[in-house]
Amino acid sequence: MTDLSSNDLLEIQRRMLRIRRFDERASKMVKRGHIPGTVHTSIGQEAQVVGSTFALADGDYMSGNHRSHGHPIGKGSPLGPLMAELVGKATGVCKGKGGSLHLADFSVGSLGESGIVGSSIPIATGAALSSKVLDNGKVALAFFGDGAANQGVLYESMNLAGSWKLPMIFLCENNQYALSTPAHTVTSGVIADRGAGFGMPGIRVENGQDVLAVYAAVKTAADRARAGDGPSLVEVVTYRYNEHSEGLRLATDYRNAEERADWLSRDPIVLFRNHLIETGVSAELLDQMEADVLAEVDAAVAFSDASPYPELSVAFDDLYTDKEISA
Amino acid sequence: MTDLSSNDLLEIQRRMLRIRRFDERASKMVKRGHIPGTVHTSIGQEAQVVGSTFALADGDYMSGNHRSHGHPIGKGSPLGPLMAELVGKATGVCKGKGGSLHLADFSVGSLGESGIVGSSIPIATGAALSSKVLDNGKVALAFFGDGAANQGVLYESMNLAGSWKLPMIFLCENNQYALSTPAHTVTSGVIADRGAGFGMPGIRVENGQDVLAVYAAVKTAADRARAGDGPSLVEVVTYRYNEHSEGLRLATDYRNAEERADWLSRDPIVLFRNHLIETGVSAELLDQMEADVLAEVDAAVAFSDASPYPELSVAFDDLYTDKEISA
Amino acid sequence: MTVMSYLGAIGAAQREAMDADERVIIIGEDVEANVYGTTGGGKSRSSEGDFTQRYGKNRIRNTPISEEGIVGAAAGAAMTGLRPIVDLSYSSFLYMAMDQFVNQVAKNRYMFGGQASMPVVFRSAMFYGLNTGAHHSDRPYPMFMNVPGLKIIAPSSPSDAKGLLRSAIDSDDPVLSFEACLLWGTKEEVSDEPFWVPLGVARTVREGTDVTLVAISGSVPEAILAAADLEAEGISVEIIDPRTLVPLDRNAILRSVAKTGRLVVAEPAHRTCGAAAEISALVAEEAFDSLLAPIVRVTAPDMQIPFSPSLEKQMYPTRETIGAALRLVTGATGVARAALKLAN
Amino acid sequence: MTVMSYLGAIGAAQREAMDADERVIIIGEDVEANVYGTTGGGKSRSSEGDFTQRYGKNRIRNTPISEEGIVGAAAGAAMTGLRPIVDLSYSSFLYMAMDQFVNQVAKNRYMFGGQASMPVVFRSAMFYGLNTGAHHSDRPYPMFMNVPGLKIIAPSSPSDAKGLLRSAIDSDDPVLSFEACLLWGTKEEVSDEPFWVPLGVARTVREGTDVTLVAISGSVPEAILAAADLEAEGISVEIIDPRTLVPLDRNAILRSVAKTGRLVVAEPAHRTCGAAAEISALVAEEAFDSLLAPIVRVTAPDMQIPFSPSLEKQMYPTRETIGAALRLVTGATGVARAALKLAN
Ligand SMILES: Cc1ncc(C[n+]2csc(CCOP(=O)(O)OP(=O)(O)O)c2C)c(N)n1
Ligand SMILES: Cc1ncc(C[n+]2csc(CCOP(=O)(O)OP(=O)(O)O)c2C)c(N)n1
Ligand SMILES: [Mg+2]
Ligand SMILES: [Mg+2]
User: Fold this and answer.
1) I need a surface site. Which of B99, C112, C340, D187 has the fewest CB within 10 A?
2) Which is catalytic among the residues C136, C203, C243, C255?
3) Preceding amide of D247 cis, omega within 30
């Protein structure tokens, strides 16, 4: 990747690590009851997430889904307010009102994750429309899963973005399952192939564990968008290592052991660490990075722990901009 | 068309004529205030309609849209109750409660037209599901326009039908405009090309004024469906001769005069009449058919005229099957 | 002042708002060709007032038929610096976009702890009473009233149409505007100057002392006729048009009922869980001690809308059914009760 | 009789209905793997009660995530000979299919003059009170009550869950079932034999003489606790659970209010245009002369649901807020009014 500096490469690894460690911690906290409700981790999908977000500029927009922590972390959101949000603290990035499913950090262009599968895709489309109308050069990316790829609103959005040549990327995180349902049993055709019928490139990144392969595909799409040539559909094939959500226990027969072992043997973070070492980065530096990231996650938890829960009355703020008429 | 008898060919022409004369009459009746509300004619699109319906078996299902008279007529529905429905009479095929937009004649497999663009597509999909579950060999066809092709529910239905290999035909009536909006300005890519991404053939009938070309494409799709090989998408390129709806007056500049003249010069009924004459059918026989069809339409109007309006209380029937709890 | 139709007043408000703020754009099916009459001077593209001529295609955006995508895109655009007006043509098409309305438009600001604001207006017309059958005739505003986070207007006069729409466009919150086709042609003198009718403030259409009649949208003209009939019978009716359904001007209604002691609510929506139910429940809770008679709702019955003109006309509140309700609560008569039974 | 959980009772009704009629099929996301616990004996595919084993994939249909397509397909299938049960998992996902519910499921039979019948059941769970944030927590049944042509059940006990679901499946009309996750674990003795709880018949949960308390879905257990509290204070509360919201057992409610003269309505939905509004309006119109006190609604406020446990718990009717309302209407106290203010 000629356009990535060695610093960039390190930053890519750091962001993947942040996602991994943040999600590992969140998983534990759910199981111990420190995080209410549930969370959906991106563990195993870090290359797909960071390869995508890193191909965007700082000011670019994105929307996401229930597998929600990786996206803002990948886009550079600080961990403390994210963790506090998961716990439901007043210092959470959404003041404790969103929770894991609804993280949003407008300061990094994160316009919101969505608990409703497919529902945030047109939000990113609208952000791309703003960019086009205001001519501000921003690109918008919508993350969605293989399951969401069967929601009609995706195709309405693709058609709209194609017709209006919006600067937009449709990023399908194909981890091959929607909850217990194997994608191939409910998907007719190939997701990436759906681009063509909607007048846009449909790119399939078969090795979604290779962060640079993902980056390259998304960067191409982003360049195309910024050049005014319209949207792209990018499908990244990947795998989630954990259960659909933390704490959920399903009959195990929907994913088999060999399949899991195969994907575990291609851990995106290990792969990229090896790649960095091959290109001359020292193991010590990478070990230090690992330690730093762990410390960051510790600090995020400490920040959350030290934060108060929101006041009762906070529940009655922020519905409308003019408070006096709220409820 | 080896599988069409000479009787079939005459019947095709008769059904196209029925649509033409019925719609011409309806148009007049709207303008004179004899039909309340408005109607959307299929004038100019008869080949597309009859080529499709004639490729179905009698027991097969179909759903339609606001351009609604041609479909049941094409499927063999008697004209009297259709006309009475347009006028709002008690003898209407829906007892006067549906009107032009919501014709349905279950006796010929017509499961209902829909005033909501795109909304009836999954209804046909469900009929195809019944056929599959009950294993009764029926095929279901959904009619929808180029405008409706941008409703997400179409792609949900295509994906569902593809995943379940339902005996289903998605029939896009591309008359190149959705109300005032030229299809090419709001459609990214080519509609027929959208089939491939959803794992099904996408066939484009470029000459949708040629009834046998339409028939051949739909027959292929129906055979495929009946053989258990799943759904097809068929896009038929055609043209409506009248305004979007009768009585509507729009700025004329959205369709130009040359374009109209070109399509008018390829009137599907004239083309097929010529074809029949070439194959040895006598002009007298065809003239007689024209007269017969006009008489049929006259009789339908007479039937409607002679019919009473529904009793007031009829408005309070048929919401639920168990009447006592209605309202 | 100019004599404006209801539809013309909407066009005027849109033009004013587009002139005043570059961020205002119009999105919708067939808006370019001014099919629904609010984005042009006349019906011709070349006419002077044509919005596409005036503002260009970057700001007048003709869309595919994709309500869900359009509503969501408008929400996303509103969250990132634009102030879209979305023309959804008929209210019956809003269901296609219900997820976007409820889960994105209404919730985002709240869920994100105030990070988002959502300055977007969704306009649609309730096309009832015109023999178009069940699909086009819906009056679905009550279901949106059950969704916190939306504001809802339902203007019943040209002036209110203009002034409320300006306020809606200037609001930083999402506003749904339900317009009644039956009112499209209504005309009155309306100021050519910009003006704003505040959201949440009812209009007292007519003062009275014996009974309060809250009337909504297309029921307002019928209410006025009914009140005139009752006046001739010596009964003084106070008519209140809430104009904004969310936020509702509760005080205006409660004050009036405190004065009259009687309440009738007329609206064209279906009965169960309608706006009339809400207003009745509000009064039964907050003004119970003033009440001298049962609260009567005059609404569409819980029935879909039949096509046939002979059937449809009995489906909505009329001068007669409203009158019957007024007579009932101001001194019940057998005739009035029978008339109401027929209607509900 | 067997001790069954609410969820188990739903599974039992589905199994009975599938055994009884080949035309009954189940359609939904993740139904094959029994993710939501009503299509299997246990959580394992191999367990005896597993529906996929028992009925095969032709009748247990795992779907893509395409709510609109699924609901419409189920409607089309119901119109052509099947009797589908659609598992939509969470109630918040129903919006995706709103057009199909309103424009096809509810209208087709009527519009087509009775040619169609629509024997289909749509089940979903209201996942509120579980700290899942605004997207999953909706309780949207009131908006469906405003749509003529749908029937709506909201069982609050295992027996009702089983008996109402059987009636719903056997109904030739479309029925929406709203189940409350908070009730999933509730257990009681339920008959192993098939039985049917008729649609449109309320259950008197407890008889009383001083005040009528209509409680819906997840509010029923809180209502029972509140009534016990009030009993200790010498006030006798009659609790009515409508069970079916459409058709509503109006007579049961009116009869009770005629007896007690006082009404409180508790439900977990948002306040404006909720079921409580409808019930209040019904009584304010039909039983006005019996009423001795204002009608008080105890509902969720018109606010979206916050995620943080510290915030969410105050959003729904509780024993305390229901108790406060009961005290208010049976002899208002300042404390009760203050407690209610907080809640609404
Ligand atoms: C509209 C809607 N339908 C169903 C669900 C329930 N649900 C949550 S996540 C999920 C699976 C999503 O699969 P996919 O899009 O592939 O994302 P993944 O979880 O694999 O990352 C389902 C069915 C939902 N949240 N929203
Ligand atoms: C959901 C919905 N959106 C918009 C409309 C208004 N409308 C009625 S017909 C029509 C154009 C439809 O175009 P197309 O699907 O191409 O069918 P055609 O009229 O050309 O046969 C529009 C926009 C509608 N009825 N339903
Ligand atoms: Mg997935
Ligand atoms: Mg068209």
Assistant:
1) D187
2) C136
3) yes
